[in-house]
Amino acid sequence: MKPCFFQRILLLGSLLTAHLGLWAQLPPNQPEQDCINALSVCQDIFVQSNSYVGEGLNPDEIDLGPSCLDSGEKNDVWYIFTVQTSGELSFTITPNNLADDYDWAVYNLTNASCEDIFTNPDLEVSCNWSFVSGQTGPNGQGPGGFFDPFNPTIPVQAGEVYVVNVSNFSSTNFGYVLDFSASTAQIFDNIPPQMEVGGSCIGGNIPISFSENVQCATVDASDFVVNGPNGPYTITEVSSSACQAGGGFERDFELVISPALTAGTYQVSLTGSVLDICGNEAILSTDSLQIDDISAAFSMDLPAVCQDSCITFSLNDNPDPTYTYLWDFGPNAFPATSPLPNPTCITFSQGGVQTISLTVSVGACSVSETKTVEIYSTPLVDAGPAKFICEGESGVQLEGNVSNGSPDFSYQWSCNLPNEADCGISDPNIPNPSVVPQLAPNDTATYYLLVTDANGCVSNVDSVHVQLGASPKADAGPDRRICAIGPGKFLDGGPAPDNQAPGPFLYQWTPADGLSEDNAANPFARPEQTTTYTLVITAGNGCSSNPSLDTNSQVTVFVDSLPVAEAGTDTVICKGDTIQLHGSATVTGPDFDYVWTPANTGFMSDPNAADPLVSPNFTTLYFLVATSRSTGCPSLADSVR
């Protein structure tokens, strides 16, 4: 025999004849002080002579922050009902002592549970925490709020589930009368609940739902019978989270079956007495359950692919349009997921072992299968830093580099010049070839590197620029002649007229002997002997001239020997006599210019003749300087007395 539903009802008449001083509070922690054990609303009027104490065994079910009940639960009790016909919900709470202040809140639990009240403020559909004592409720007699104890009525729809919390803010001993009779909606239940069987899977439990909450105490395994293939079946347990948590009512249950369910059609029957919260007995009925044998087995066209290459996945069975497919290829895949039965061209952006899962669902059943696929990392190439080569140099080495991928690597260098030969690549199949691009000075060639690894994965293409810098052309200027004794001369070095290299320029003369400075364009030259100087110019692009190619990069400074003047032998004459001097010169002839000094000590026929006639007024020492007409070098002075 199953326990019948019991509802505490105290008659209003006996309440009114009792003396207020005889009333006392109820013992704390009554079951109905927790939402999961809420009192069922099965009549219009509830008479509660004594006040509840505390919050029950599950305190703090109401978050006092978003709720208007800013003290939370306080000496409270819960009521629950399922709307039978749509309309307006109205109730009035009349304290037995009209000086008491009772507060209340209404929550919609149609698609929620008691534990959701604290975290979901949207479940609260009406609430009043007015400081005004006496009657209160959503009876349409006021707008609600802190100064008004009455709220508008609440529109409700058939099938919705609500709970009402009533709190004694005054914390007195006196109870109240709760009156729902003004509601236009029917809220107390006289309709029997109905059972419905949900979907299940191979090896699973059988979910059942009632059309409304039923009493936990009236539901057990003996109330159900299951028939189907490979039976007979034993129901070992009827489970429910709310009932197992100590609740008094629930609508959703699971039948735990032995042996395990296999594919096929089953009949689930309600054969025992199950009561709703108002005592209505559930309709005895039988419902069918179909369990499909579904598979998530799949295959792929390749066990391993290169990064960013396509791979196709296929079901081992034919697709079923009634099934739902969900592929999960992981965060490195594109697309990351797919609802298609046989997705094609899935690519992966990173190498390594990738996990692939497929979940196939039909109804409440789903199965999954997982496999892995090897994704080879694609080689990543770097063609290296930009290069600069000077005109006339033998080549510059490229610095290709590869990361990721699997050794050994195959290299392929190319360039953007029209003719492959103009690229000047020493070996296009090594990482660091030497290149000599056939370019006009100051032009640039672009070289490309592509790598294929041991798995056949092809890298990105990277490029590097190689510029051919114009080498400067030097002009050392004209040759210079200087005398062995006497001043030197400035050299006249600089860029040649046909130079294409950019400035500024640096200069270097070799050898440095006899030069005022060896790094100036126009140094002063005074070598001791005839010397050939070579000028090398370095341009602003870093390229230097090549003396072997520059025909004007050398200059010779000739150091000419001095003539040797002969003034003749000393001679004695009488005063007034005239004598002829006999001058001559050797070494750098044959032509010389002569100068005799002094020319003003008497008579001298011609101071620029080699053999002038002289008649000095007194003993005179004459000096002769001979200058070579070919070199311009003067001799040292020779003398005759």
Summarize the structure.
The protein has 641 residues and is an all-beta fold.
What is the first-to-last residue Cα distance? 171 Å
Number of domains: 6
What CATH architecture of the largest domain would you give?
Sandwich
Shape: elongated
Radius of gyration based on Cα positions: 59 Å
Give structural attributes:
641 residues; mainly beta; Jelly Rolls; Immunoglobulin-like; 6 domains; five-stranded mixed sheet; 50 strands; 2% helix; elongated; disordered N terminus
Structural features, described:
With 641 residues, this protein is an all-beta fold. The protein has six domains: 31-179, Jelly Rolls (Sandwich); 195-291, Immunoglobulin-like (Sandwich); 298-376, Immunoglobulins (Immunoglobulin-like, Sandwich), CATH 2.60.40; 380-469, Immunoglobulin-like (Sandwich), CATH 2.60.40; 474-560, Sandwich (Immunoglobulin-like); 562-640, Immunoglobulins (Immunoglobulin-like). It is 2% helix and 37% strand. The chain contains two helices and 50 strands. The strands form 17 sheets. The protein has a five-stranded mixed sheet, with no helix packed on it. β11 (195-197) and β12 (206-215) form a beta hairpin. It is elongated, with a radius of gyration of 59 Å.
